[in-house]
Specification:
Elements lengths: L4 H11 L20 H15 L18 H14 L1
Helix pairs in contact: 1-2
Organism: hydrothermal vent metagenome
Protein name: Carrier domain-containing protein
Pfam families: PP-binding
Length: about 80
């Protein structure tokens, strides 16, 4: 696992609703049960704990074309590499 994987999986686990198992890279985002308030909390925690600024527009789908937690992790890795 990359350095960002485990901390992000922990953040997501803390906000996911109804998961019976811990999230993995393969977990579909749709299965997380995350509402818009949780998205804001997750973004705040990612910025605070991982030191990366996440561009966020409340009028757009924050997950874009992302289908799985792995897609989200890869997008954050890209942001970190640009930093």
């Amino acid at each position: 696992m990359a350095d960002i994987d485990q901390p992000l999986l922990e953040i997501i686990k803390d906000h996911a609703v109804g998961l019976t198992e811990a999230p993995t890279r393969q977990t579909p985002i749709a299965d997380l049960g995350i509402d818009s308030f949780s998205i804001v909390e997750i973004i705040y925690e990612v910025e605070e704990k991982l030191g990366v600024e996440v561009p966020f527009n409340a009028n757009e789908n924050p997950f874009g074309e992302m289908k799985s937690v792995g897609d989200l992790i890869d997008a954050l890795n890209t942001l970190i590499e640009k930093k």
